[in-house]
Amino acid sequence: MNYSNFLSESGALQRLSPLLSYSVIGRETAIPLINLSTGLPNSNLFHLVGAKFQLRDGSTVELSSEDMDIAQNYGKSDGVKPFREWLEELTIRLHKPPTTASSDQDRALQVIVNIGASHGLYSTANLLLNKGQRCLIQERTYPTFLESLRLIQGDPIGIKMEEDGPSITHLEEVLSQWNPDDKENWSKRPKLFYIVPNGHNPSGETVSLEKRLKIYALAQRYDFIILEDDPYYFLQFDQPRLPSFLSMDSDGRVIRLDSFSKIIGAGFRLGWLSGPHALVSRLNYDIQANVQHANLLSQMVMHHMFRQWGLDGFLERADEIKEFYLRQRDALARAAADHLTGLAKWSAPRCGMFMWIELPTIKDTEKFLSEAVLSKGVLLTPGNIFHIDQSKSSSFIRVSYSRASESDLAEGMKRLGEAVRESSYTANLQ
């Protein structure tokens, strides 16, 4: 692959920080040095010299004075080395990327620590898209990515959604506008497809394996990059987990975003990013230029916790969290059946934290939720904010089952049903 063809004007300018190149020399040279180059603060002046964290299972994680020195100073932009290596080991075990250890350095798998998936969304869009360039997305999608496109003035093309993911017929119809043999107009094609494959936010769809294979084949034919945003990977209710796009990426055309927010803690602001070296290295340069590196204290805490658990222990704890959200989903499904039957349409998601509900008698759920439902003490999210044109009204709502108790889920659906009945009754009278 010629990766230079995918870079935006901004992306093509990204490079290793000249200042940080001297830090690399200081860390990696075998020559004894009197280092008068580094701008690291003196660690003898740091106030925190140790830490001990109590885990929910009763065990503890302790950070030594050496750990605290690392946590309180500047570090490498791609992550604390042993933590990054653990994430690479996890990624290879789960996905077995075909480009692992590829002899083609540009295609070879690279894994870096980043500041959570939201940062990865913007930095990837900025790396690949210029103003006005087209980007494929699911027709309803995560608003943070829409905001990233708005800021760089990219041009989103919405692909229709079905219960098992994007409509392949519609995707092929859209892509057929560009002939791979017409090199003159080839640069006008969409260069990027942003997709949430599991437990899609907002509507909960999980892309079937059949569609994943077809989407990847279309990416090869029409030569676009797949941005696989998968924060709900560990929350797939059906087992075994579906193969990721990264697992089928023989070309090196998938950038994968993983997150700890749903399984460890959102406040740590940590995630990891995997993909071909030619693109991931430039995303690392973006981290250098903008934020230096992800939070080092968070990295050190997670590093020790994960090493203490081991890979199997980490996966066992992820499964426990998945089972909790499965029970929550089932509780919401029961509540919907009890209180919304005949008033709404929905299907139980196979993954994630959200249920997508259609209210056929309500044409503008944003107004309905803010006026009729909020007054009953229930806060829900209207469907319009997940569409490319957020000004258009929607009959859909997103219901989160992540935090509410079973009794609150039941009461919330009861009050929603009451509001729908009252609204429909009023409308009929008029």
> Helices and strands, in N-to-C order?
HHEEHHEHEHEEEHHEHEEEHHEEHEEH
Largest sheet descriptor: 7 strands, mixed
**Tally of DSSP helical segments:** 13
Content of β-strand: 5-15%
State the end-to-end CA separation. Answer: 62 Å
Instruction: Give the class from helix and strand content and strand pairing.
Output: alpha/beta
Q: What's the average pLDDT?
A: 93
Write down how many β-strands occur, each being a DSSP E stretch of 2 or more residues: 15
Radius of gyration: 24 Å
Walk across the major sheet and give the strand order.
3-11-10-9-8-4-5
User: Can you tell me the residue ranges where pLDDT is under 50 for at least 5 consecutive residues?
Assistant: none
Walkthrough of the structure:
The protein has 430 residues and is α/β, with parallel strands linked by helices. It contains 13 helices and 15 strands. The strands form four sheets. It has a seven-stranded mixed sheet with strand order 3-11-10-9-8-4-5, with helices on both faces. Strands 12-13-15-14 form a four-stranded antiparallel sheet. Helix 9 links the parallel strand 8 (192-195) and strand 9. Helix 3 (65-72) crosses helix 11 and helix 4 crosses helix 11. It is globular, with a radius of gyration of 24 Å.
